[in-house]
Design a protein that fits this description.
about 290 residues, mainly alpha, 2 strands, globular, about 75% helix
Length: about 290
């Protein structure tokens, strides 16, 4: 019984971080219908940013996360303005963005490999190796801090979407882009802000990843596959679905890793992706597309 509770705790904490990583990806799809295949590459870039802030300046990754959020938000706004407006009116906008972000992922990986080399890196603040002991249970301090920070950022993102005027515009655009434009929502501005928020979330996620996992430039291909499985399970464009999907699959993956072996853990995500596409293609909280 104690062992199962321990696995559940570890799975939930890891799931919180996965939920933050997936939230930016599902937000972009909900607002812009962009499947950003470069999202995980930018998470790795943010991990390098926090790693070098720690190694070079001694700045804690949790503090560098606060710095990374506005830096990556600005980077996202500039990137959107440079690349996406010229193809907004294309009838094949979704397909073109998949190809564009696929190319961005390769460019980001190549630049990181050139400047940072392909060796494994990981920040090592003192709490990354500590744990709280609660009787027969232990809670890794690094995972606890990361999951707490993830929960705080997800609540902040939810509050932004729920209670701010810009958040109203984002939600209206997610529900019906054309109708939102008709009633006066500046869809391009909303899309720019949403892309910036998606990048800011990637920046925050990368800061947490920097001390949770060993990473290297090509690691993003494994993560983007897992994140796509999470948002398809929850429903493309559904923030609630991404969070619930991340928590549920992370817990299942933890039990699979303990019972069968860690090599089999990633299959949990891909198996769930396969089943949800067979049974309910729109995901748990997605809406069925209408002709």
């Amino acid at each position: 019984m104690i062992a199962n509770v321990q696995i559940l705790i570890l799975g939930l904490m890891l799931g919180g971080v996965y939920a933050l990583m997936a939230s930016g990806l599902t937000l972009l799809f909900g607002v812009m219908r962009v499947v950003n295949l470069a999202h995980a590459a930018f998470i790795v870039l943010a991990a390098f940013f926090s790693f070098f802030m720690w190694e070079g300046l001694g700045i804690d990754p949790l503090i560098s996360m606060v710095i990374a959020i506005p830096v990556f938000f600005l980077f996202g706004v500039i990137l959107y303005r440079l690349l996406f407006p010229r193809i907004e009116g294309s009838p094949r906008f979704a397909e073109m963005t998949v190809l564009m972000t696929f190319g961005l992922a390769f460019i980001a990986e190549g630049l990181m490999s050139y400047f940072f080399t392909g060796i494994f890196r990981s920040a090592s603040p003192p709490y990354a190796r500590d744990a709280f002991i609660l009787g027969d249970l232990f809670i890794p301090t690094g995972q606890l801090y990361a999951s707490t920070a993830s929960a705080a950022l997800l609540v902040a993102l939810w509050a932004f979407l729920k209670f701010t005027r810009t958040g109203y515009g984002v939600r209206a655009t997610m529900q019906n882009r054309d109708a939102a434009q008709i009633v006066g929502v500046d869809v391009r501005r909303v899309s720019t802000i949403s892309f910036g928020i998606g990048m800011a979330v990637a920046g925050a996620s990368g800061a947490l990843v920097s001390f949770l996992f060993p990473f290297f430039p090509s690691r993003h291909w494994q993560w983007i596959a897992i994140l796509l499985a999470l948002i398809v399970l929850g429903g493309m464009g559904s923030l609630k679905g991404a969070v619930i999907g991340a928590l549920g699959l992370a817990v299942i993956s933890a039990f699979v890793s303990d019972g069968i072996g860690p090599v089999w853990a990633p299959i949990t995500f891909f198996g769930a992706l396969f089943l949800i596409l067979l049974i309910r293609p729109q995901g748990l909280f997605g809406k069925r597309a209408r002709a």
